[in-house]
Amino acid sequence: MSAKIPPAAGLAARVLVGAVLVYAGATKAAGPAEEFAIVIGSYDLLPRDMVLTAATFLPWVEIFVGWSLILGLRLKVAAAAAGSLFAAFLFALLTVKAKGIELPNCGCFGDGVHLTLTQGLIFDSALAALCWLAWRSAPAPLSLDSWAEGGYTGRDHGKR
User: How many domains does the chain have?
Assistant: First the structure.
């Protein structure tokens, strides 16, 4: 039998990961997609004709998943999506390191915050662990999912 995640820990995990995703997505979405495309292209992982498309949509995916986590909307799906994003980011960072590609920063936050590849690896690993915590905490008492199911009063309706 696995231990139950305290509601406060699950809430903190999902709000922290969600806020990071919203911030990261917003800083990249605020600039021209072409600038972020240069960063994505420097990783040399996608075919050149897909780089601009990825640069256009990825920030919005981050924002959408981030808000879903913060609000607790489809929490298990949102946490799994966030975990998948961080797994992809970790794969990209590890691939760049293995290839010996020198990047000035990971590009994780557009022009907002500049992390080295190693800092990006540590940060994304920690966020991936928090995604697992958020996923394990679902269904969460302080979430739109809980509210929609009638759990917003804190009582079990119809159960005595």
Answer: 1
